[in-house]
Amino acid sequence: MEPDWKRLSLSSWPTSLPSGGDPAWSGWSKAPGKTSGPFLGEGLETEGLHPWRLKEAVVDVLSRQYTTAGLDLGVLEPLASHDARVVTVGHQLVLAGGAAFFHHKILSAIRVARRLSELWDIPVVPLFWMASEDHDLAEISKVYGCSDAHQWRPMDKEIPHPVGRRSLEGAEEVLAAWMKDGVHARDAEVILSAFQQAQQRNESWAGFTRRLIHAWYGKHGVVALDPDEAAFKRLCLPLWQAEMEGVGVAEALRNSGMDQGPAHVRDNQLFWLDSTRGRVGLVTDGGDGWRAGDLSWSRPSEGWSPWVREAAPNCSPGVLLRPLYQEWLLQSIAVVVGPGEWAYWHQLPAAFAAHGLTFPPLRMRDHALVVPALAREFGWKGELGFLHKEAWERWVLDVWEKPHQRHLEALGRGLERAVAEIAAWGVNESDQMAGASGALGASLDKAWIQWRKKFRNVLRGSRGAEWAAAVEAGLWLCAHNVPQDRFANWHVLAHTLGGVSAEVWSESWLKDVDDGLTPQVWWLEL
Length: 526
Description:
Blueprint: E1 6-9, H1 51-69, E2 85-92, H2 101-120, E3 124-131, H3 137-140, E4 142-144, E5 149-151, H4 171-179, H5 185-200, H6 205-217, E6 223-225, H7 230-234, H8 237-245, H9 249-256, E7 270-274, E8 278-281, E9 283-284, E10 290-292, E11 295-297, H10 305-311, E12 315-317, H11 322-330, E13 334-337, H12 339-345, H13 349-354, E14 362-364, E15 367-371, H14 373-378, H15 389-401, H16 405-429, H17 434-461, H18 464-477, E16 478-479, E17 482-483, H19 490-497, H20 502-510, E18 520-525
Parallel strand pairs: 2-3, 2-13, 3-6, 13-14, 15-18
Antiparallel strand pairs: 1-18, 4-5, 7-8, 7-12, 9-10, 10-11, 16-17
Helix pairs in contact: 4-5, 5-6, 15-18, 16-17, 19-20
């Protein structure tokens, strides 16, 4: 059955949003323009590679990545056009797609790219930037099913390897358990096929993720780019050299006053990356050199340029350098971001300017909320916000207590009157009764509060099955104090609550692109 998604303004989202949350906010940092962010920036030259050749070099590397994987190169054809632009969206390589907003971001990028392509009559390509160099396993290694959290634990998890380079060993069992825990058979078949193909070609986690993106969204023109690639890094030598020279992102932000912000500003935004140590941040050696764990480098007499040229494949950008690396290669016409990304990207305009890069228009991702039937029947509305477990249970009991509210209030007022009459009569008989009257009032207040708690417990206990269902409904909206789209998996939501494949839900988002530029809240009441 076709889902009846409602489209609301982003101000309807029941949590705070950066620089927005009011109806006047457009959800954009600035409007995208056809010539405001060409795929190829002006003034970008690297080691004899002129700007007009940079795009060709990027496409060549992507072609090699896709050819090595045995994937259809047709998805890259629009990108090779001389007037192509890209709408970029990035994310960690989360297990099985992780939380639903992983898909919300990609679907948003597709909608924006389609609409801009229609308006400008040029190829606009949605490009997924794989955050394959992220080494934070806690962020990417867990996926929720209908009843359990499924955790992937690599054998060498103590070494901070970038997740994209990690072996797939041990992941098959985790995926199999998850696919039995609320995933539609059609979705499970696609995921399992991608995993088996990655295994057969001895691919790492990045290869598996590229296959998933291609299987889920390749038909919608999404290109997956893995930036953990020596050829890409050799195109960006000035970025790495600036960090080694101490005139990179940290210096630019210090001069702009943006060195204090949501993302920590390291003195050097580079990490050293190798197969033995994993990914280790560069810190000062106390002089004019740098060290990364047990490795150290003094400043060469000829400067850092030769070192950077040799070490580029081992250079990995930190969180505040990654956007510059991305935009050096792509010069996106728009970048789709989440609330956290919106905040730290806005630390960076001065760093972009220092490198002669155009700061791209940022577009807040679409949000989505699936409201379980029971939550809707209880009367939950978005303006109530995401209620954590204890707040949700209090709210449910408030709903159940409401029919008795008038009588309970009357009883409470009756108790207050009785205590007041007793106190007045006692004091009239003797001033010595004042203390006893106060103690009686306090005791009755305490007893009344306990009685009310007992009454609420009786309400809960008398509706055991209904109470269990109510608690479950609340956990679909907010679990572990985390809103739905940041923990619940897109595939599990679609099958468990909607009874359909996740592809059905995704396709329904993409049917209408007329308003693709305006961030939406997609609201589905079941």
